[in-house]
Amino acid sequence: MALSEIGLVGLAVMGQNLSLNIAEKGFPISVFNRSYEKTEAAVTRAQKEGLADRFRGYKDVKEFVESLEKPRRVILLVQAGAPVDATVDNLCKYMEPGDIIIDGGNEWYENTERRQAKVEALGLRYMGMGVSGGEEGARRGPSMMPGGTPEAYKYIEPIVTKVAAQVDDGPCVMYIGDGGAGNYVKMVHNGIEYGDMQLISEAYDVLHVLVGLSNDEIAAVFAEWNQGALQSFLIEISAIIAAKKDTEGEGFLVDKIVDKTGAKGTGKWTVQQAAELSVAAPTITASLDGRYMSALKDQRVAAAKVFGELGLQAPAAVSGVDKKQLVADVCEALYCSKICSYAQGMNIIKAKSEEKGWGVDLGGLARIWKGGCIIRAGFLDRIKQAYQRDPSLPSLLVDPTFAKDLAERDAAWRRVVALAVTHGVPAPGMMSSLSYFDTYRRERLPANMVQAQRDFFGSHTYQRTDKEGWFHTVWDENFGSADSITTSAYNR
What we know:
This protein is α/β, with parallel strands linked by helices. 53% of the residues lie in helices and 9% in strands.
C-alpha cells in the first residue's frame, strides 16, 4: 500500500474538516484519534464525499506513523495543554529523526517552544501552526500561520499552500517565525477577533436600543455595511444572525439567546501579553471585560432592580433623532474603532517579534488574514499596503490613508459615543477606542502629574522639559515627601 503524504491526529470538528480538506486537495492522508469511533466517523464521511482513496484511518499509533512517507509530517488538532504533551510523547515513541510534528491548536506559545526543544533533542522537528476559520474554514480553506523549526516549513509548504484559503494575491499562509511565533500570532488574531465582535455587538445595541431599529432593519443595515468599508465575515454573519427567526417559537432567535458570552482563553492571553510588553490595548481589553461582565447575569438583573427603584431606568429609543444620520454615524464609529483594535493587535505582535527576534512580516499577516479566517475583512488589503509602504510603521493610526479616514469620521465617532454615554448604553469598545485615539494623537498628556505624584511618595524621579537628566524633588518637607537616594536612578 502506498504511503500517505501527511498524517493528522485529533478528529473533532476542526481536525475532521481539515483532514478532508487535505484529501480533497489531492494529498493522501492518514488519520488517528484516541477514540476510534471518531476515526470511523471521519472515514465514513470521506467515503460519502468521494475521498476514500486518499483517506485512511488507523486504530494503532504505531501503524499510523508507519503509514506515512518520510520525513513524516503529523498535524495535531487536540485540546491544548496536557493532551498535546501526551500525544507528542506517544508519537515520539515511533517517529524518527527528521520527522515533523505540527501543532495546529490554540496553544500557549511557550508550550510550543518547550516542546520544540524537547523533540529536537530527539532529532525531530516541531512547528506550532495557528489555524483560523472555524469548521467551514477548515473544510474549505483556512488562514494558516505556521511557525517553529524553519527548515521544517519546506516539507509542509506544498501542502498548506493548497489547503489554505486562496485570495487575489495568493494562498492565506506564510511562515511566521521560529519558536512559538505561529501560535502567538494566532493568539493575537483571536484578541483582535474579540475586539471586532464586541464592537459589532455595541453597534447592534445602539441601533436596537437607541435608534429603535427592528431585527430585520438591523439585518438590512449590516448587509448594506458589508458592501462598503466594513465588508467582513463578522459583519456578514451578524446580518444573518439578526434576521434569523426562531424555529421553536415566535420572534427572532438572537433575542432569545441568554446575554452571556463564553471565552476559551486566547483573549485573556492577548491582554496579558499586552501588559507584559507595555503595549496599550484598551479595545481588546474592553472586549474581554465585556465578556466577564456578561457572565455576571444574576448580579446585573439585581442591580437593574436596585437602580430602577432609584429612578435610573433602562435605556430606550431616543425621540427626535435623525435615524438615517445616526445609522450612518454608527457605521463610521464602528469603522474607526475597528482600526484601533487592529492597530493594537499589530503593535502587540510587533513588540513580541522584536523581543524574540521572529521577524514577523506584519504586511504579510494582513494578507493571509484576507481569506479563510474569522477576522477576514476588505480593509485588510489596505493594512497590508500600509505596512508595505512603511514596514517600521509605529501605528496604523498614523498611516496616511487610515489617518485621513479617522480624521474624516471623527465627528460621527464622537456623536455615537456621546449619545451612548448620555443615555446609559454601555459601549466600552467604542469608548476605549476613541480614548486610545485621543491619547495617541495628543502631544502632551497629564502624565506629568502622575510622575510628580510618584516622585512625591516614592522618589521615583522625573525628567524635565527644559533640561536633560533625571531629577528628584522634596515636594513638602513638613508633609513627609519621600527623599530616598536608593531610588534616585529609578526607571532610567
